[in-house]
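Quick question, first post here. What does this chain look like in 3D?
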Amino acid sequence: MRIKRFMTYFMVFLVVVGGVLLRFDVSAQTTPTTQMPTTIRVGLTRWFANQNTLTINNSRLHVGYNENGTFVAVQTVDSASGFIARVNAAGQVVLYAGNQAVFTFARAGAEPQVRCAIGGMVVLHQATWGNVYYRGVIALRVANRQITAINVICPEEYLMGVLPQEMSPSWHTQALMAQSIASRTFIMHRIASNRHAGQGFYLCDSTCCQVYRGAESEHANTTSAILATRGLMMFYNDRPIMAVYGSSSGGATDNSENVWFEARPYLRSVNSISEFNATSLQWTRTFTWAEITALLNSANANIGTATGMAIAEVGTSGRVQEIIIFGTNGQHRLMREGIQSFFGPSAGGALRSRNFHVVEALPVLPAVWVYDGRQLVEAPLSMFHGLDRNGISTPMHRAFVYDGTATRSITPAVTTFTGGTGVTFVGSGWGHGLGMSQHGAQGMALLGFTYRQILLHYYTGVEIR
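> Answer (accepted):
Ran it through. Tokens below.
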């Protein structure tokens, strides 16, 4: 495949004895491709980023450098008590066994930049977590005389450490297989985005990308699902899609343009009725006006003391698109994902989703009339149900009227709540609401749907291959 290469540097690698050393590609792609790289780079940012020292609890290591895309082993070092990696005054990584330096990565012209390789399992030690086991290779990237560990690993083995963190291994096999394909496809789009290119890796190990905890988190059920779908990804117009997913949509997913970015044809709002029984994903949050005033101050919104709130817009999926907070000295508008993050500094953190209503400021749903073949039935819009593409009944969030020349939307009227001690949010779901709902996938699997049917439901018009 055609690729754009990073500037060429030499790099420090650690590989346990007995690991298989292969050639590797170090390219950073700028557009999605249809071919998964042989290895990927995962920044271990949760525990092993920007460290003054790095503890490696292997008793024997291969050490070497990357030369023109090939790992070249230089030496084998031994230490019954493991190793400590530090950066010396010259900016070189030095391995210590106890107080004795056993190897210095001092090759002339070597630059501390990550390069890909595959090897055996490396054991990194974190003070509170203990030993963490990683397949593949650990590359040491130096910046400001601090070390960041980067796991260089083949994609399928990386997924083995991802899936148990992203979905319960006890869930239905078809849900786990759907998650495997979504996570695998997400790798491709993250690589293409170059989001972490400046840090020397493709993905990080946190919720920013996908949660990854190395080999100790692997589970037989999720590994089996990965192997059963090995290599399968989702494509739209022959390009891997941005296969985002979330814990629970609360009943309906959202359109991409309502969340982070422009409209994408495969990220359309669909119903997710199969997760309605997930009562544990219902939530309630209450805030006093004093607390909301403090949040306004944190957001540098200088509108005085908070006095009221209104839901100004609700999207087609039922998610709140805009909130207005009224103060003694003006108004402050919250839009889309900014609504959730606004509450981040509070004791309970950000709101779980935008699928909520404010108890004291309920939007007034319009009354509609439906002719059932015998009589006109009048009721609030929310009382009516329709059938989705799978024939499953779902409540209506929005209605449209055709007046003979154009179609217009019936939308809720905005109401404002003022007074009292504050406001209460009552919501459902957890996450941004784009792409596959994991609880919805589990619900569909329990109803007998296959992983392909699950994915084709949540990602509109994609091809799985």
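The first helix runs from residue 155 to 166.
The two ends are 18 Å apart (CA to CA).
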